[in-house]
Design a protein that fits this description.
The protein is α/β, with parallel strands linked by helices and 370 residues long. It has 15 helices and ten strands. Strands 1, 2, 3, 4, 5, 6, 8 and 9 form an eight-stranded mixed sheet that branches.
Length: 370
């Protein structure tokens, strides 16, 4: 089965540029697609200094839903938005004052990859973080989701006493190693790339070779202690069921985890909401926009009732996804049934795209006339 490769190199234009991200693309583009992917053949999509978060999200979503292995090579810089203080990937138009509107929320990357199996999903990153984002990552980590294998580094934006833009030394080393035509095991590739980039990092970077994301270093453990057996990955079973067309089995499995999370932690817990969101995506894969829309509406309503702000990324994402699925409903009666709840949510959660509320209201009027 062919693989999919997504090359993303993003950094702001002008004085806000901390790293020359796009400089790595010619080297990566010179690598054979199959070597980039680790498969016999692969489809490669390249995004160089993209302008709009929604455009990147569209490409990421398409790549995440494609069958077969997915490898994302991501080079860029991290900033925190001023309101939520959450990490974002800066894009070409991003400035310190416009991060929330012009950069890609890191959570969007995590969300789009969450249903894939770690055995088929790899994120290779070379990120530079400004002072605020660096503090965030060193204190709280950078969550890439439990089902994504992550290799790479996060570096502070500038070393003391240095000026100018940084170089994506780690990603360039990865690309240079792959240009030989041989792709070693990813852990080996990662270590060899780190060794080549060591001179520029001076030991300050956060590095990772594993699953989940970049996390603060845990406290040392007493000698002789053990972490126990590795956890079972239910997302791998879900991914396999979806790819095999067993959508009912996939939903039943997710429903069991959802019920267990509700009983253990409550319906408004992140654990329970995660599985509700998973079931919403499973409904989308099964071609059931009614069930998917209803689930996303429920997620948004629970998050808002729990006190999460209307501009929180998780709330906005839930409403945006509900809106998208509602637009795919062909049964007019079902669309009329769910439309008022969506319109009510859009009043509270307008989202980042202008005209969303007006779009719902206009379609509702058309449905009433029809």
């Amino acid at each position: 089965m062919p693989g999919t490769v997504l090359l993303i190199a993003a950094s702001p234009l002008g004085r806000g540029r901390l790293v020359d991200a796009a400089a790595v693309l010619p080297v990566l583009a010179a690598v054979a697609p199959g070597v980039l992917s680790g498969t016999d053949t692969a489809n490669v999509v390249e995004l160089a200094d993209p302008l709009e978060p929604q455009a990147v999200l569209t490409r990421l979503r398409a790549a995440a839903t494609a069958p077969g292995p997915l490898t994302v090579y991501l080079t860029g810089q991290l900033h925190l938005d001023r309101r939520q203080r959450l990490p974002h990937l800066a894009l070409a138009r991003t400035t310190a004052a416009t991060v929330r509107y012009t950069a890609l929320p890191w959570q969007w990357i995590r969300e789009e990859l969450r249903l894939r199996s770690a055995a088929q999903t790899t994120l290779v990153v070379d990120l530079h973080a400004d002072a605020d984002a660096w503090r965030y990552v060193t204190e709280r980590g950078l969550d890439c989701g439990p089902t994504t294998a992550v290799y790479g580094r996060v570096a502070p934006a500038r070393a003391p006493g240095r000026r100018g833009t940084a170089e994506p030394a780690y990603m360039k080393a990865v690309a240079t190693l792959l240009r030989s035509g041989h792709r070693p095991p990813l852990a080996e590739l990662h270590e060899r790339a780190l060794a080549r980039a060591a001179e520029s990092s001076a030991g300050r970077d956060l590095v990772l070779a594993g699953t989940g994301g970049f996390a603060p270093r845990p406290p040392s453990r007493p000698a002789g202690t053990v972490a126990g057996p590795p956890p079972v990955d239910p997302h791998a079973a879900l991914s396999a069921a979806v790819q095999a067309g067993r959508h009912t089995d996939a939903d039943a499995l997710a429903a069991g985890y959802e019920l267990a999370a509700v009983r253990a932690y409550g319906a408004a817990s992140e654990d329970a909401l995660h599985w509700t969101e998973v079931r919403a995506d499973l409904a989308m894969f099964a071609g059931d926009p009614v069930r998917s829309c209803r689930a996303w509406l429920a997620v948004a309503q629970v998050r808002l009732a729990a006190g999460q702000p209307a501009d929180a990324p998780a709330v906005e994402s839930a409403v945006d996804r509900a809106h998208h699925q509602w637009g795919r409903i062909e049964d007019a009666a079902r669309a009329r049934e769910l439309g008022p709840a969506l319109a009510e949510l859009r009043l509270r959660v307008p989202g980042r795209r202008s005209g969303a509320l007006e779009n719902v209201q206009r379609q509702l009027r058309q449905l009433q006339v029809g």
